[in-house]
Specification:
The protein is mainly alpha-helical. 72% of the residues lie in helices and 0% in strands.
């Protein structure tokens, strides 16, 4: 009977994801993960076909983390402002995940909150909340998400650190200006 694996797939994923969150995807390699788990690289390759397989699993986990944040965003008040706040907060609280999901050079922006602006539900909710046309709400969603992306990028890259309360106020001011 072969010895029982003391390192599980879940342990590998959790430790790799923690490294990804703290240091970025580039810090995740077989040796660094094995060292963090105090094991050889063998368990990693017994659960994953290679590092690309592990990194794909980590990317899925990052997307799920972001989607969970969006699902848990505040439901009261203006829908667009809530989505933009959640996106911005994700950039502040998870800079490595944010950079990986939304700032990679040459990476298709298909998985960004900018796509959320194309989401008819958000546009419809914003139109209903504000009393503006769907077309105006669509344009407002695009403009606000571009602004929120810029703010989140500045925060995630630590070019200028600002308190979340100040960032919320920025979003509110710009939204008011765009509505005017």
């Amino acid at each position: 009977m072969p010895p029982k694996q003391r390192i599980t797939r879940e342990m590998i994923l959790e430790r790799s994801f923690a490294m990804f969150c703290q240091e970025g995807m580039e810090a995740v390699n077989a040796r660094s993960v094995a060292k963090a788990l105090n094991c050889s690289t063998q368990p990693i390759f017994s659960y994953f076909t290679g590092m690309d397989d592990l990194k794909n699993a980590l990317e899925m986990k990052a997307k799920e983390t972001f989607e969970a944040a969006l699902k848990n965003c505040e439901q009261d008040g203006e829908p667009l402002l809530n989505v933009c706040r959640t996106y911005l907060r994700f950039g502040v609280e998870q800079p490595c995940l944010f950079a990986y999901l939304f700032m990679r050079p040459g990476h298709e922006l298909g998985y960004s909150v900018l796509k959320e602006a194309e989401n008819s539900e958000l546009v419809k909710s914003e139109a209903a909340y504000t009393g503006i046309s769907v077309e105006a709400a669509h344009r407002l969603c695009i403009d606000m998400t571009v602004y929120a992306h810029g703010l989140a990028t500045v925060q995630a890259t630590k070019q200028h650190m600002t308190l979340m309360e100040e960032l919320d106020a920025c979003l509110e001011r710009v939204l008011a200006l765009l509505k005017a």
